[in-house]
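During the no-cost extension, the postdoctoral fellow (Dr. R.K.) reprocessed legacy sequence entries with the updated structure-token encoder. One reprocessed record is reproduced below for audit purposes.
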Amino acid sequence: MMTPDLELVQEEGQVRFVLDAEPWAAFLAALDAPPRRHPRLERLLHESTPFDPLERPNRQVLGPEDFTEADRRAIQATEPPPEASAFDSERIG
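Re-encoded structure tokens follow.
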């Protein structure tokens, strides 16, 4: 978005923004102003996600010793659905 009081100057792969005195003063005032609070964003950033460490008591990490031999055989026998082959390029190793 270009305004009459804003000029873009490209020099050697860099872009320089040139403002007249009044918009420049407004820009500096906006930089110097205290930050605004955004309560909805603050709430969102404080919510836990499935990727957070174990913070809830109903989550636990299972180790190999937690599986029975029948569990291990069932896991080994499991085949991915055909549509999972779309992700084969993401496999490591």
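Residues 34 and 67 are 55 Å apart (CA to CA). The first helix runs from residue 21 to 32. The remaining legacy entries will be reprocessed before the final report is submitted.
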